[in-house]
Amino acid sequence: QVQLVESGGGLVKPGGSLRLSCEASGFFFRDYYMTWIRQAPGKGLEWVAYISSSGTIPYYADSVKGRFTISRDNAENSLYLQMNGLRAEDTAVYYCARDGGATTKDAYDIWGQGTGVTVSS
Amino acid sequence: DIQMTQSPSSLSASVGDRVTITCRAGQSISYYLNWYQQRPGKAPRLLIYATSNLQSGVPSRFSGSGSGTDFTLTISSLQPEDFATYYCQQSYSTPPNTFGGGTKVEIK
Q1: Cβ pair A8, A19 in contact under 8 A
Q2: Are B43 and A95 inside 8 Å of each other by CB?
């Protein structure tokens, strides 16, 4: 079935790095823009980054620009988020989501279950 | 960035009640307004896209309306599984696809 499965979260010290992965199945991954969204404990949803279907066009929220890098491997049906220079305020559950494109007018129609990142000394 | 403001931030309602949640955009976003439901401990799921289009599998008691800057999500008869937090999101001007702050629907 159509699904996204994230992995790679964990506990990391301030200034450290972590790489999140999101494996897609059940659909033509290479046809879709993909996004990372996060949710700090008890807070709302925050858009983090997205990447075009080909992987050539990334965009970042100002809060992560210069520290996070979004990438994808269409041959492996996988999306990644390399997070460097982590701060306490990056502590959140990170979700990958599919941009439904023209079908949903760019609403996010498929979400992963999320992976937790805790930045603490 | 386009600011999205939801109201109320929380509400209490009973099973069977009609519930309305409002979302206001900081500028016109045409009909590019989406609604998500998030149950506790779960990932968000898409309910409605482009103001009024029900995502596949979503019950018909959910509906959306509006245009420009003002939008509404209505649950015609609240069910136990509808107690959750609801988020609006604009997909008119991206990036970023900004979200509203959320509305928590609790049991009265």
Answers
A1: yes
A2: yes
